[in-house]
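Hi there. Long-time user, first ticket. I'm pasting a complex I've been working with (about 389 residues overall). I'd like to know whether the download I got is complete or cut off, because the file seemed smaller than I expected. Thanks.
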Amino acid sequence: EFSQAGRSTYLRVDLEAIWNNIQILKGKCSEKTEVIAVVKANAYGHGSVEVARYLNKCGLFHFAVATALEGKELRENGVTGYIQVLGNCVEEEINMMLKYNLTPTATNLQFIKKWAASIAQHYERVPSNGMLINVDTDWDKPKVVIKVDTGMSRNGCQCKELKSLMEACENNGIPVHSIMTHFAQAWDDPLSTQEQLKRFLEATKSYRCMGVKVHAANSAAIMQGYATDLDFVRPGIAMYGLAPEPTPEAAAMMQTMGLRPALAWIARPCLIKSLDAGRKVGYNQAYRLKQQERIATFSFGYADGYNRLLSGKGVLTDVSGKEYEIVGRVSMDAVTVRVDDSVTVQTPFYVIRDDYNSPNSASNIAQMLDTIPYEIGTSLSIRLPRIYH
Ligand code: PLP
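Hi, the file is complete. Here it is re-exported in full:
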């Protein structure tokens, strides 16, 4: 696979694992609940085009991205279905969203007005039935999602503003696809999560009665059982088999649920040298050999997403699970590892292992860096070749 990758390091992505994880998460929800697969940030490093295309083949047609540009990339690569742009959509994104049939998340009146005005330029009304037809394509009338802030105080209109936003949509002939909110701490704060959910259900009650769809749950909420009976759920992290929190408890729960990591980062050494005691390794000569050692140089570094804070801290594992320490500073394109006599340039290593119990699982690396598995995935550079299974 190294020659297929064209590099001595690559990411192995198991697309079937992602689909399998989605089925498991869906199994935690009510029968009617549909999954919006969150594929923003290059599908958390897994490759959004390949992931979304694969999910299309599996019969999934709902996606969410963070920016219109991310949605454009999916469309240009043949991804079909609903693509929602999460976050606070801004007017700079409107033309692109209309051109590529992306569904914006609206959080304020100004945006809705600008959206309505722009529709007029991209759409023509059929005189006979009043329907809007896209002048560029045959897409139907562009919808919006209204996002309500129920306690996170970040994106979303305030609950008391929802009515005016819904009215603005109606007055401007903009269909509302759904109303959504987002939880701040669904993993481990039941009180605030229940409070957010309560506010959301109250604020949307009259619209739900009229058939407007609603959604709230991210991965943590699905795993903990909040808002799993609404119209949609929006899993991201757990879909990739990564835990929402970098704790052993979270990893254990992933395993118990049968979820599995979809990604492994694999590398082989490019050069192995026996060096004498006293030799210093890498930038700033940060590692000094106390005895003769074999030092293997791998051709990946922080430019690939291997955090420089793992200098002298991180480990690679071989297929048997044996650990090898990173010694010296992580460079942009290289890391140095102390190896034993068994290692050759043919020996494959895991940089990130697709096993919750490995010291270099995404969760354990995140914990080492005092961050969350999300950042481990999204840091994986586009420079890393991805091989799909
Ligand atoms: N919904 C929204 C609005 C988000 O911003 C995100 C990601 O941050 C998700 C859903 C998916 O969250 P997670 O990856 O925790 O499942």
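A couple of notes from our side: The longest strand covers residues 269-275. Residues 190-209 form the longest helix (20 residues).
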